[in-house]
Every structure is written in C-alpha cells, then in structure tokens.
Amino acid sequence: MKKITFFLLTVCLLLNLPGFSQEVNPKNVPTSVKQAFSRQFPTANDVKYALENSVYQISFLYHGKSCVVSYLSDGKLIETEKEITPAELPALVNAAVSKNFQGYVIVTAVRREAIDKGICYEMDLKKEDAGYSVRFSEKGEILTKVPRKVTYKVTTQQKH
Fold first, then answer.
1. Which domains does the chain have, with CATH numbers?
2. Low-confidence residues in the chain, pLDDT < 70
C-alpha cells in the first residue's frame, strides 16, 4: 500500500498537468516527437501523451522511475522531470532542506531540467499535518516555497 501511495503522489507531482491539458491519442502525436522520445527513452513503459499550449507532454516509467518530458511539435526537447529518491538529491540541496525544514520529511522529490532555465529540484515536505511544496536551485537556494495542508501519509522516510 505504501508503494502505491508513494507512486500515486509522485505521478501527481510529476504530471502537474492543469485541467486544460488534454490527453492525446499516440496516432495524433507528430512523428518528430515520437522519434525524439523513442531515441532518448528507448525502454520507456506506460507511455501517455498530453497536449498543453502546443507542447507535447509525455509521462512514462523509465528504469522504474516516473518521468515526464515536454517536446515542441518539431521534436525539440524543452523539459525533463524525473522522480528521484531523497538520497539522490545533491548535497547542497539536502543541506538546505536540513537547515530550512528541520524535522520535515521528504515525501516526493523530482529533478527538473528545463532547456531555458537549467536544473532545479522540487519536493513535497511534511511535518505532522503541515507541509510545503518547495523548489530548490542546484546550489540549495529556495526558489519557491508554497505552504500545503497535508492529507497524505508519509512513505519516504528521510527526516531533516
């Protein structure tokens, strides 16, 4: 049950697709997008396509991890998101979490790389029934911090 809960939370965090994005039948995805995707992720499983503002978002499992990639219609990659474990966070990010969120547990973590903005790390943190969704730079700087009422169980146990 814990694995299912963690997986569902991770998928929700990764997908983060607003209500106006729409699922797309693979037959309607441009060949250039499908070719670029299959070159980059040849062994992807559970592939699903969505379209939002002329950007194709593809969610899938790759080596057991939830991922989302975004492509323009010409096949140009613009962003990747990959589920990671707290142990996979860079030391500077882990240090920032420990310093700024003492006693909080990392519930989900994602590495996001946007072609135009670089790499950042997003995570949901929980402490009792309070929590935050936080985005960190590679250097451990807090980029965004949004308070959240927590209504889910913690399944990833790495307290800071």
1. 2-81 (3.10.450.360), 85-149 (3.10.450.360)
2. 1-20, 150-160
